[in-house]
Design brief:
The protein is an alpha/beta fold and 137 residues long. Helices cover 34% and strands 17% of the residues. A 4-stranded parallel beta sheet has the order 2-1-3-4, with helices on both faces. Helix 5 links the parallel strand 3 and strand 4. The radius of gyration is 18 Å and the shape is elongated. The model has no long low-confidence stretch (mean pLDDT 86).
């Protein structure tokens, strides 16, 4: 059986879309240039962290939640829906993550975070999230 898994012809036949190659190269997504703007905390304690994002935009947060669960000093939740948890408040850091910057669920979470007075971080390459980040400085 392992001979089949090592046979590139068999893999090519059974994986015509190249999913295995995508998985093998996924680590490359961690290589990017980042700009941190307005990184100063306003002095409020952070008692919980909520990351809102869909698909690959939530992937790093899911990895953090699993691998660092026993080491995180605050609660850490990943939200992949339209609504943030009811406990989100001014002591919650909400990180809105969307590569495109236009994901509906993430934009909904950002709006709720703003309404609840949460501390906000944005991870994006553009779109409405980048515009929101620029607007708020």
């Amino acid at each position: 059986m392992t001979e089949i898994l090592d046979d590139s012809n068999v893999i090519e036949q059974r994986d015509p879309e190249g999913a295995l190659k995508v998985i093998a190269n996924q680590y490359e997504q961690t290589r990017f240039d980042a700009t941190v703007r307005n990184a100063e905390n306003d002095g409020r304690d952070i008692t919980s962290v909520v990351v809102t994002g869909m698909g690959g935009s939530a992937l790093a947060a899911l990895v953090v939640k699993v691998l660092l669960k026993s080491e995180l000093p605050v609660s850490f939740e990943v939200v992949r829906t339209y609504d943030l948890p009811a406990y989100v408040n001014e002591h919650t850091l909400v990180i809105a993550s969307s590569y495109s910057g236009n994901t509906e669920e993430t934009l909904s979470g950002l709006k709720q975070a703003q309404e609840k007075g949460a501390q906000i971080g944005i991870l994006t390459s553009g779109g409405q999230l980048e515009a929101a980040a620029s607007q708020s400085g």
